[in-house]
């Protein structure tokens, strides 16, 4: 089509629609809502018990009121609240350390080649396994404890690491070991995504060092910082099994955290009101932290906010000098060795006979063999592994089947804006809800349905617990779909299938991330299985819980069980880590 | 890559199918047995179960460690069907959660010592599975020979022996203060040795008030005498506090860092498997408190109880476990005493078993198990750990103040 006036020939060309197409109310067929139905049903597994817990917390003998919350005045509970808050500080500390590690690896590129796998392994290993490893390393006896032996060799004698006050160091080391890899990988992905020309311009203008960090990296990484801080703080407030495994019985009271305090309260008293109140307090802390963390995410309407654009490799940064490369390689190697060390301790301990592992440290040359594995197998490790495999696979499958359509519905299904916000808000709150908020009523419900001990029920609970996070993650992947495609899809159900078809190609990282993380999470789970089905549901909890009472003399079988149980998640994480990170920092544009 | 991934998925699916017997799915109702055992004890119990032959129902062992009383808390159907209670004192306080024992084995719960705890209004709510002799001290004879001393026969001799050992350059004792019950066992032996009537009265009281018994303070003072000796404890107080009972045994027999350790009969398998020299193992029983008095014997044990509502399968399993020969695999592994039986054990355990059946001995059931809340992890365990911190290695001068502080703590606990 053309226009001709005054000898000028104007060509009119259509322009591609780039934003969400039209303001105003599109026609909303009811069909897409059905996509959310399974998620609604599954979420009821959490929502109803949460409601019951809240109701119980506020029900006293005299009717509704805050009477039950007097439980917080109890010195032990107060102490536990204090400890839980201390854990939040630990989480922040881990974020800061992880950020600087990422910065280091970004500035000295060779670092990451060696460092990455070393950092991923601890993240894949369960909390119980890493807790057990650190307890072995910090054992008070110099013949057994690696750190104690080293310290004694250097300084003559060694403090009692697992004793008063110092057990915090052991707990924090184990926590940091688990999470630093995750923190660093995400920050690193964000840093790598900062276009080089921006960096170069700033440097040319004389903005360097701290100034550049403040002016460029920190603001640009704010969304990633939000996600990372949120994950870490939630992990820190939920600390439960780590304390159970690491801290010796006599110190348990001083290491008490809110989650543990709740558990002991539910098991030692029949007063459901008080324990429900404890659960609500725990939830309030997590939710408060979560909401603060999410404020940064809110601007993007609850989406996981990070967009990582893969750079055109031809525009790569100039190669650093030889010295810098050597230095980077050296530092990377050194950090990697330190980082992988606990895993080596674990495997080496497992390779000693139970007697030798109980008597001496992993470096002892005597008693090598597989008898510790045999001892672990004796208490039912294989059967527990099989049932864990079943639970994890079933939970992952259910989760994917339900989360994908839900995420699609929330992202592009045409929900009214307000409803969409409410739905996402509910998902964010559910994602941070601690197990203690729903465990007790849920367990009662499962029991009265005659499903007590059913692995199927447990898999469903896991899927329900994983759903909010999966939907949040997938939603942002969907939300970053090319607008043209979406605008076509909104025109009718026929085109929607076209959008779904591109999911396979375009959103695979997010899907893989959800699947891998859920599988590993369920595989490594202790607390959900423990609180809902009792101890012995997972291979590690079965063996560790059984052996923890005589921890050091059981080092061999414990290490063997931990090693066997870690193989699957470690292999899974190592093979999919790049995709997982891309999925987590999602919005991976095609 | 796709083909290998497919292969992986295929293998996983096959494994899943193979494993998806209803057992793995958890659909068959198994009989759940909650135990506090761990390590070798747990494995020995698995052997006992295996020795029962084929059962028509699956059995699941749930190790709960020191938190075994939590099994009562769960109101759910996931509650264990059978509890192996290491604190039989919990039985009278949980009668409403328990079902009576089957009639044919009920008489087992009426044996002496056990009757008070397990029988109520003529109904038996538990039967002993395992008896524990909690007044045993394991030691290394080679050290005693080197220094030229004999195992002590009364309290003052023990104090002298410790001094002699210290002067000769040996650390006398390894203490597993990380396990609170080791500390209470120590105190109970002393109290039973000096004032059996007070011990009995406290054990029988519905709301016991140990802080009002002068003899309780006296027992603490005596205990303080022993614990306060400088250089007594291997690793000092701090290490002792994080040491669980097997660790203390390894310190004595594996690393040879101390000469003696107070540990029950059930320490035997740990002692034997970790001993550097299998012939250097000796045992004496807790000395009399004064030359004329009877030697104290504190008895503990694990009793089988059925949680309410019980099932026929659970009853069947209890019956099988109560059979005279059921525990044979564990007895041959060591560290297991059966109520009333004196044969079939190692020489050390035979001596303990005989002391348990001799008439005229000062036998009493574990006190801390019967004190209720006062005797548990936040009660007496805690008080004694603080007491140990206050006196350990500080000499006799530190004792009186520490005793006063401990009695104050107890008073507060009794009131709270």
Q: Tell me how many strands of chain A there are.
A: 4
**What would you report as the Rg of chain A, rounded to the nearest angstrom?**
26 Å
- Helix content estimate of chain A: 55-70%
Gap from first CA to last CA of chain A: 32 Å
Task: List its salient traits.
A: 590 residues; mainly alpha; two-stranded antiparallel ribbon; 25 helices; 4 strands; B: 416 residues; alpha/beta; seven-stranded mixed sheet; 13% strand; globular
What's a concise summary of this model?
With 590 residues, chain A is mainly alpha-helical.
Strands, helices and their partners?
The complex is a heterodimer of chains A (590) and B (416).
Chain A: E1 2-5, E2 8-11, H1 33-58, E3 59-60, E4 63-64, H2 75-107, H3 110-124, H4 127-137, H5 146-155, H6 167-192, H7 196-204, H8 209-220, H9 222-237, H10 241-246, H11 258-268, H12 272-298, H13 322-350, H14 354-359, H15 371-378, H16 381-412, H17 417-432, H18 439-448, H19 455-479, H20 483-490, H21 493-506, H22 508-523, H23 527-533, H24 539-547, H25 555-584
Antiparallel strand pairs in A: 1-2, 3-4
Helix pairs in contact in A: 1-12, 1-16, 1-18, 1-19, 2-6, 2-9, 2-11, 3-6, 3-13, 3-25, 4-6, 4-13, 4-25, 6-9, 9-12, 11-12, 13-25, 15-25, 16-19, 16-22, 16-24, 17-19, 18-23, 19-22, 20-21, 22-25, 24-25
Chain B: H1 2-19, H2 22-25, E1 31-35, H3 39-50, E2 59-63, H4 70-73, E3 82-85, E4 98-99, H5 115-118, E5 119-120, E6 123-124, E7 127-133, E8 136-139, H6 141-147, H7 155-167, E9 173-174, H8 180-194, H9 196-204, H10 214-227, H11 236-241, H12 245-254, E10 260-262, H13 268-274, E11 282-285, E12 296-307, H14 312-322, H15 328-333, H16 347-357, E13 362-365, H17 380-391, H18 399-415
Helix pairs in contact in B: 8-9, 8-10, 8-17, 10-18, 17-18
């Amino acid at each position: 089509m053309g226009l001709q006036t005054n000898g000028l020939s104007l060509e009119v060309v259509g322009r591609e629609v780039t934003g969400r197409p039209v303001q105003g109310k599109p026609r909303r067929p009811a069909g897409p809502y059905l996509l959310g139905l399974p998620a609604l049903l599954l979420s009821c597994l959490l929502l109803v018990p949460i409601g019951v817990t809240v109701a119980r917390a506020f029900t006293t003998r005299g009717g509704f009121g805050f009477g039950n919350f007097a439980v917080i005045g109890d010195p032990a509970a107060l102490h536990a609240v204090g400890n839980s808050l201390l854990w939040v500080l630990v989480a922040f500390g881990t974020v800061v350390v992880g950020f600087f590690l990422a910065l280091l690896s970004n500035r000295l590129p060779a670092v990451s080649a060696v460092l990455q796998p070393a950092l991923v392994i601890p993240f894949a290993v369960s909390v119980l396994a890493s807790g057990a490893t650190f307890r072995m390393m910090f054992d008070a006896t110099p013949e057994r404890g690696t750190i104690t032996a080293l310290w004694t060799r250097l300084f003559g004698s060694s403090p009692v690491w697992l004793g008063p006050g110092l057990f915090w160091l052991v707990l924090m080391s184990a926590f940091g070991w688990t999470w630093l890899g995750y923190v660093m990988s995400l920050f690193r992905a964000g840093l790598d995504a900062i276009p080089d020309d921006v960096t170069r311009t700033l440097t040319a203008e004389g903005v360097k060092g701290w100034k550049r960090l403040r002016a460029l990296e920190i603001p640009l990484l704010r969304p990633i910082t939000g996600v990372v801080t949120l994950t870490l703080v939630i992990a820190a407030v939920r600390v439960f099994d780590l304390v159970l495994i690491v801290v010796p019985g006599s110190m348990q009271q001083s290491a008490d955290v809110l989650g543990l305090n709740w558990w002991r309260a539910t098991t030692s008293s029949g007063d459901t009101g008080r324990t429900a109140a404890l659960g609500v307090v725990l939830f309030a802390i997590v939710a408060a932290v979560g909401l603060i963390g999410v404020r940064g995410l809110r601007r993007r309407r609850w989406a996981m906010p990070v967009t990582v654009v893969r750079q055109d490799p031809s525009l790569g940064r100039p190669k650093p000098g030889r010295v810098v490369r050597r230095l980077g390689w050296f530092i990377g190697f050194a950090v990697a060795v330190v980082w992988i060390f606990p895993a080596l301790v674990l495997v080496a301990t497992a390779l000693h006979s139970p007697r030798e592992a109980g008597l001496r440290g992993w470096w002892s040359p005597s008693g090598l063999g597989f008898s510790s594995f045999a001892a672990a197998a004796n208490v039912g490790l294989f059967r527990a592994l099989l049932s864990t495999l079943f639970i994890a696979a079933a939970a992952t499958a259910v989760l994917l089947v339900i989360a994908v359509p839900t995420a699609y519905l929330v992202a592009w299904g045409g929900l009214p804006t307000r409803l969409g916000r409410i739905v996402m808000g509910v998902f964010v709150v559910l994602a941070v809800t601690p197990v203690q908020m729903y465990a007790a009523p849920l367990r009662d419900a499962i029991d009265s349905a005659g499903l007590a001990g059913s692995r199927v029920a447990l898999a469903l609970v896991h899927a329900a617990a994983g759903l909010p996070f999966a939907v949040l993650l997938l939603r942002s992947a969907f939300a970053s779909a090319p607008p043209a495609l979406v605008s076509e899809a909104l025109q009718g159900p026929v085109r929607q299938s076209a959008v779904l078809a591109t999911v396979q190609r375009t959103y695979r990282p997010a899907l893989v991330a959800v699947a891998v993380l859920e599988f590993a999470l369920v595989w490594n789970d202790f607390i959900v299985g423990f609180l809902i089905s009792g101890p012995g549901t997972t291979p590690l909890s079965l063996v560790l819980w059984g052996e923890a009472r005589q921890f050091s003399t059981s080092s061999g079988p414990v290490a063997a069980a931990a090693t066997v149980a870690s193989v699957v998640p470690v292999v899974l994480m190592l093979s999919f880590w790049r995709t997982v990170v891309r999925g987590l920092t999602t919005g991976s544009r095609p | 890559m796709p083909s290998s991934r497919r292969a992986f998925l295929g293998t996983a699916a096959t494994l899943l199918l193979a494993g998806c017997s209803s057992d793995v799915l958890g659909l068959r109702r198994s009989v759940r047995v909650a135990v506090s055992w761990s390590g070798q004890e747990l494995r020995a119990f698995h052997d006992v179960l295996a020795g029962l032959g084929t059962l028509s129902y699956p059995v699941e062992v749930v190790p709960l460690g020191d938190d075994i009383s939590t099994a009562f808390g769960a109101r759910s159907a996931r509650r264990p069907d059978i509890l192996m209670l290491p604190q039989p004192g919990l039985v009278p306080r949980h009668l409403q959660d328990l079902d009576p024992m089957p009639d044919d084995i009920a008489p087992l719960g009426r044996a002496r010592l056990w009757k008070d705890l397990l029988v109520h209004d003529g109904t038996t709510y538990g039967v002993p599975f395992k008896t524990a002799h909690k007044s045993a001290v394991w030691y290394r004879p080679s050290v005693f020979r080197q220094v030229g001393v004999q195992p002590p026969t009364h309290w003052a001799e023990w104090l002298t022996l410790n001094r002699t050992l210290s002067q000769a350059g040996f650390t006398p004792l390894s203490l597993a203060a990380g396990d609170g019950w080791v500390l209470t066992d120590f105190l109970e032996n002393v109290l039973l040795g000096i004032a059996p009537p007070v011990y009995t009265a406290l054990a029988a009281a519905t709301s016991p008030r140990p802080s009002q018994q002068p003899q309780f303070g006296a027992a603490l003072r005596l205990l303080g005498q022993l614990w306060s000796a400088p250089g007594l404890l291997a690793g000092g107080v701090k290490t002792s506090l994080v040491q669980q009972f097997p660790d203390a045994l390894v310190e004595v027999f594996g690393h040879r860092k101390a000469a003696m350790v107070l540990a029950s009969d059930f320490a035997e398998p740990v002692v034997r498997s970790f001993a550097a020299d299998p012939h250097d193992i000796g045992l004496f029983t807790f000395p009399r408190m004064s030359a004329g008095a009877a030697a104290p014997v504190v008895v503990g044990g694990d009793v089988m109880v059925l949680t309410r509502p019980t099932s026929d399968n659970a009853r069947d399993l209890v019956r099988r476990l109560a059979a005279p020969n059921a525990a044979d695999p564990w007895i041959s592994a060591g560290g297991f005493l059966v109520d009333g039986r004196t044969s079939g054990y190692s020489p050390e355990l035979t001596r303990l078993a005989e002391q348990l059946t001799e008439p005229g001995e000062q036998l009493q059931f574990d006190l801390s198990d019967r004190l209720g809340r006062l005797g548990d992890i936040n009660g007496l365990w805690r008080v004694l750990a603080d007491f140990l911190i206050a006196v350990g290695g500080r000499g006799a001068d530190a004792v009186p103040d520490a005793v006063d502080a401990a009695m104050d703590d107890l008073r507060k606990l009794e009131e709270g």
